[in-house]
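quick one, four chains, predict together pls
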Amino acid sequence: MESQLTTIRSIDPETAVNDTLAMTELSGFPTRKQLRDLKRREIVRCATVKFGTEGYENVTLEAIATELGVTKAALYNYCSSKNDLLMQCYELGMDRLVDAVETAMAGTGSAAERLAAGLKAYIVTMLRPDMQYLWSYTRPMVTSGDKRSVLDSRDKLDVMFRNMLNAGISDGSLRADLDPKLASLVILGAANWVGIWYRKGGGKSPSEIGAEVTGEALRGYLA
Amino acid sequence: MESQLTTIRSIDPETAVNDTLAMTELSGFPTRKQLRDLKRREIVRCATVKFGTEGYENVTLEAIATELGVTKAALYNYCSSKNDLLMQCYELGMDRLVDAVETAMAGTGSAAERLAAGLKAYIVTMLRPDMQYLWSYTRPMVTSGDKRSVLDSRDKLDVMFRNMLNAGISDGSLRADLDPKLASLVILGAANWVGIWYRKGGGKSPSEIGAEVTGEALRGYLA
DNA sequence: GCAATTTGATAACCGAGGGTCACTGAACTT
DNA sequence: AAGTTCAGTGACCCTCGGTTATCAAATTGC
């Protein structure tokens, strides 16, 4: 059986919005390192979709390997365990989240407006079909030791929101008496909770949900 | 090996606060049904502690069985699968939560005060060591089909909070313009989020955390 | 009291799936 | 051309959830 790992698969526009993979396609003569890294990311991308839509414990390494046209053992060249593979998926997901929030917050409005934009982007990104189960259903599997980079990203997000809260106090668009630490806790809590209860079919689109929850979560903090 | 399932184990006061098991000890000549039910609950109690403190996927049925002094196969007289056992643990946990919140909300103050008491009780209960992983780490494993009763309890809690929010609008202790549905979402989101990031050693006790988060989550809703 | 039956537990086993390892063949190096 | 590196293979092991045949004790019927 010929390995398909060397093939650059077409990117599904629905699930791959803002995916960075497409931007790093091979140019001319790929080095061994480049090829290896591309394959690794292809594995992670495949695993992310499967974990995200089917749930971690319902996906076998065999299934991932088959889908990629290789054997299970081959995967172990790119990850040290199934949990490690999940970790790499988390990193990918975290990067997406950070990117989305960063972009949304880069606007020019008041801090309150940019905070709202960032929060909405956070929620919408989290509700992407292939992020769904990844966040709400398998965060658990992140075992100690491995999870450093994930926690780093989480902290990074937390800091981004806290900074924006502080900026809001400074520019007067948010109440001066709010505690950024506690407020970011409540805000992110509300946002993350959406990922738990939201299921397609509730009638509302992720974008609508994002806007509604954002409005509600920030209501008490506006100046 | 003699079965220890017939022994009523002493209740650890730390983890068994409000546990209903102690109230149903056998009286005189236990019937077969009573004995069976007692054993079932003893299994669930043991599993709850282990799942809660070690994490679902790190606990083998073998380990639970050994701790109870029986074989793994014996457990299958009381549950149909490992996941079903987890479900029963969730029910136990949910009952604890509902009890705690109900009791806390039964006071005589304003609706806002009772809401705060209920929310704090919710958080504190959730932070019990043996509830920790159960909530934040294994909610995922609840697979469709089985999970009806758990969702019922969750709905029940949601309704309790929504009712109290409505009561607060009526008695004027909460802002008249709040949307109970969205508000309960944000409030419970913030509360549940605590279970994710809280780890012993942060210096603050569950009670302090509960009070702080409660204050913050309700701040925007007070009249 | 003594068979017949029901119940709860056991030991032995099965199969899925995560993880390992000796080896192979192709690509790169010299 | 010979040696070296390395991704990938196939066969294998082990853990653990789940099943089944069987047995002993308690319960019931006569």
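Chain B has two domains: 30-75, 82-219.
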